Amino acid sequence: MQTRQTMRRMQRTAVRAAVLATTAFATALCGNVSAHGADGGDGIAGYQSAQQTLRSDQVHNTVSRFLVSTRQPGSAAAADGGTVGAPKNGSAPAAPAAPPRFELKDPVPMFEISPEFVSGKTQASPQTALRLSYLASRVTASDGRPAAVLLAPKGATGTPASGSPQSAGAEGWQLAGIRDGDADLGLAERGTPQARTFNEPQIHAWYRLTAEGMVEPLNQEAASGLGGKGAVTLAAYQKLVSARYGDKLPGSEYDRKGLAGGYPGLAEEQRDQPAAASAAASAPSP
Fold first, then answer.
1. What digits encode the pLDDT tens for the residues 174-204?
2. Where are the alpha helices (DSSP H) in 205-271?
3. What does pTM read for this prediction?
């Protein structure tokens, strides 16, 4: 009798130990998965570098100056870091405003169509259709003014969004500028690793590329770009943009003639805009 009781106690102890071990393993596994997910940045190369850049003093100071310069009534950021607009009636200039408190959210990718996709040099596939131009971080300011910090990849740019070792961001990320407002950022934030959002910059159209390979419009410009259709296949969309820009790519006769409206892409065509905003916001006051 005593032997059977001893055996039962040993069995219960073994069962409890197995349950505890299984629970500990499951907890560790969940912790590892969560940490990997938080660190992965949806497969964006150098995502940790981007987060570190956003935490840097350079970015913090630049955002502070930008928010101060753009909150002045009737004033705009000037090229020298000051503001445009003189005091009326000879009154003394107002004292500089204190920068509002702000937070920077985790950056999200901003994709655009790649020149290779437009030219037809690559087949219509999610791996070659898009390229990563920026990472954008939402500025949440205490005064409610919307803005976005743009980070550009260091080194070579314009690589397709294929996740290859040479993809954009593999060498790290750097401050490219600050964009007032958050319309584009709001559209970029609607993307997921399975359904990326992307921009056709020439007509300011935003789309979603679904996991099934369908291109869906996200704004009115995109709906017009698809001829009013609710969705088209990626191959059909490639034909549309090839017809629009295929003869206007860099190196084309259209480009060599210096005609406006070619297809240098967002990374080259629009990079000057945020860069100028960054220069205005980061330049020392006179």
1. 999 999 999 999 999 999 989 999 999 989 9
2. 220-225, 234-245, 253-256, 266-269
3. 0.68
